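Protein: Methyl-coenzyme M reductase operon protein D
Species: Methanooceanicella nereidis
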Amino acid sequence: MTKFRRPISNIMDENKLMQIEIFPQRLLNLDTAQKLLNELNVIDGINRMVVYGPGMPKDDPADLLDGKYCVREKKYICIMGEMVELTVQVGRIWIEVRDGSVVEKIREACVKTLPFPFELYEGLYLRTQKTITDYVRKGGEVDDIDLGMFDPGKCVPCCETLPGRKENDLV
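Structure follows.
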């Protein structure tokens, strides 16, 4: 059910972190994505997660037929205890782990929740150093968790918290 481009090496970077990509063969709907994220949220050893995929359509086709334009309800998912507005269709999930033994737990969570084949890859998917873009977007106040959390084509982060919630509030 899974395959690797190459075996997971368990080699950590200079920060003692390793990055894994979950690549399902289909785009995940909201329910399937939340089930997978719920399984991943309980695994110890995961440092951060990012969902990646094509942007959500601006308009719902059913609404266009009814004459409603630019009316799209916001969808939220829970990533590591934080409610995040979903602005992309979930196509891949990038995970930064602190220990190579976590990879098997991630694979088991995927087998449990995904009813179709998927692939796990090891590589470098999330930035590990601050860049000029981070300084421009956040005014130089970027912590290690926020690295790479911005869509370069927009002036807003690609992952936003619920209105009225602080970043440190847990669900």
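Remarks: The radius of gyration is 17 Å.
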